[in-house]
Structure to design on (321 residues):
């Protein structure tokens, strides 16, 4: 059988039930390879994040930008969870340092905010939001992004906020050549649709294990790693960013879906094509403007969870058969 591009049978049933619904939060914990000892934690973490996002969505009701608050709540939970490669638990660069990226976009006005290659930042999602709401720019990088965050009082900085035994061990193994560095599970993200039908997409990542300092992947790049539009829907990418960037992955997925292919089929097609051409781990989650939900990956694993009003939360770690 070809590498998996679809959710498990139970997962696809859950996705189908979510079609044409309002008030939902869809979360992923990264496409790639999850270590066995972290697999249960990945499922629990994505389910917890989806629940927190939905709780925030329900709390805010019909408030404007409820979808923004929901994705921040969900992704903040993932960033604080050491099971994932974002915030606490992020992987290290080739110099043993931490550099993180994040990007956010809302559908109602296509406003965006992103940060890239920011050192020792625990909650990149909040700084990306600040760029969107409190600056005249769409993307800030490196020291400039840090200075902006400090001036706004946004973001927690410090190596101790990101470092974990897991990150140190994997850095040492990669440096000594004991473990492969390709297709490690990376990136976290959430898409929310609120009761107004507005969408927001937010992704956050520690990047590629043992990456060159200054390397930036797809996560903070508009159209590649994230996109939200009132006429198209919202999407997030995960996996090897270099493979996704060349396809402008999220915009391409939504463009295909809007042409009549559908969100799920578009996600599956794009994953297959990228993996066929590059061999890279890749995944996407997406929500159409009508609430249709899609998820696909070509990778050993991808954790995900879906929460919507009036229904039980569903989630799993889908596995390449």
């Amino acid at each position: 059988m070809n590498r998996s591009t679809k959710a498990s049978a139970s997962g696809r049933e859950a996705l189908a039930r979510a079609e044409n619904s309002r008030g939902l939060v869809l979360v992923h914990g990264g496409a790639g390879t999850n270590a066995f000892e972290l697999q249960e934690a990945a499922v629990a973490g994505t389910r917890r994040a989806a629940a927190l996002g939905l709780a925030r969505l329900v709390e805010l009701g019909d408030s404007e930008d409820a979808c923004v608050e929901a994705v921040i709540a969900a992704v903040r939970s993932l960033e604080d969870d050491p099971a994932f490669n974002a915030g606490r638990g992020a992987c290290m660069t080739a110099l043993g340092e931490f550099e993180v990226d994040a990007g956010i976009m809302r559908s109602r006005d296509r406003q965006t905010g992103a940060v890239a290659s920011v050192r020792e930042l625990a909650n990149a999602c909040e700084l990306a939001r600040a760029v969107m709401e409190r600056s005249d720019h769409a993307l800030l990088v490196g020291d400039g992004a840090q200075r902006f965050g400090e001036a706004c009082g946004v973001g927690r900085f410090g190596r101790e906020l990101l470092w974990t035994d897991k990150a140190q061990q994997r850095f040492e193994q990669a440096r000594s050549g004991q473990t492969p560095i390709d297709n490690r599970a990376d990136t976290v993200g959430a898409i929310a649709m609120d009761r107004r039908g507005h969408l927001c997409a937010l992704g956050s990542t520690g990047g590629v294990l043992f990456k060159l300092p200054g390397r930036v992947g797809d996560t903070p790049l508009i159209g590649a790693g994230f996109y939200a539009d009132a006429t198209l829907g919202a999407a997030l990418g995960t996996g090897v960013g270099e493979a996704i960037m060349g396809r402008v992955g999220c915009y391409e997925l939504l463009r295909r879906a809007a042409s009549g292919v559908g969100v799920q089929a578009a996600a599956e097609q794009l994953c297959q094509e990228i993996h066929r051409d590059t061999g890279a781990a890749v995944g996407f989650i997406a929500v159409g403007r009508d609430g249709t939900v899609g998820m696909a990956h070509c990778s050993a694993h991808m954790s995900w969870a879906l929460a919507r009003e009036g229904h039980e939360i569903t989630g799993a770690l889908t596995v390449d058969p």
In short: Residues 39-60 form the longest helix (22 residues). Residues 1-21 have pLDDT under 50 and may be disordered. Residues 9-87+180-319 form a domain with the Glutamine Phosphoribosylpyrophosphate, subunit 1, domain 1 fold (CATH 3.60.20.30).
